[in-house]
Design brief:
With 175 residues, this protein is α/β, with parallel strands linked by helices. The chain has one domain: 2,3-Dihydroxybiphenyl 1,2-Dioxygenase, domain 1, CATH 3.10.180. Helices cover 29% and strands 25% of the residues. It has a 7-stranded mixed β-sheet with strand order 2-3-4-1-5-7-6, sandwiched between helices. The protein starts with a helix and ends with a strand.
């Protein structure tokens, strides 16, 4: 039960982080701006592109014991603060296209996170595989999911699974 609550807390933290980054970097356009913007098709299935799933930006979310100590360590590796705050007990550190999330007291273990529809700067990318397309593909390969997205839905959604060694993989789409 405690593990389930920690996983849910991790999902909520990831969603909150994604929402924060999305709103910070991509504020909602005014009605006038939105009317001038022409929508392009955003999603394709992986078979229509290069023959593999487009999982989007990759980051690792680390459960850390001391946020300040971890921040100092990753800064010594060339990472800099990208998002989050010490007051909220999490920081997102960036070095080039590498992202490391440092989370103190939010969940146990580490989480590999993919964000369909985003690049490593939390900017929207034009072509990506919707999380429901990825879910369908994984299920067709017999991969067991720990949580699933609503197959009839659209927009934001997430799925969780574990790799053969028990590492949590979160595929978290924010748009």
């Amino acid at each position: 039960m405690k593990k389930t609550l920690l996983i849910i807390a991790g999902l909520l933290a990831s969603f909150a982080l994604g929402f924060y980054i999305c709103m910070r970097l991509n504020p909602m356009p005014s009605t006038e701006q939105a009317a001038k913007t022409e929508e392009k098709p955003a999603m394709q299935t992986h078979k229509e592109k290069e023959g593999h799933m487009k999982l989007g930006a990759f980051s690792i979310s680390l459960s850390v014991k001391d946020l300040k100590t971890s921040k100092t360590f990753y800064e010594s590796l060339g990472f800099s603060h990208f998002a989050g705050s010490e007051a909220q007990n999490y920081l997102i550190m960036k070095n080039g296209n590498a992202l490391v999330g440092l989370f103190q007291g939010m969940f146990q273990g580490n989480i590999l996170t993919f964000n369909p529809g985003w690049d490593e700067n939390a900017q929207n990318i034009e072509q990506f595989d919707d999380v429901r397309t990825i879910q369908k593909e994984l299920k067709s390969k017999g991969i067991q999911l720990d949580s699933e997205a609503d197959e009839k839905g659209s927009g934001p959604g997430s799925i969780m699974l574990k790799d053969p060694d028990g590492n949590v993989v979160l595929i978290d789409q924010h748009r």
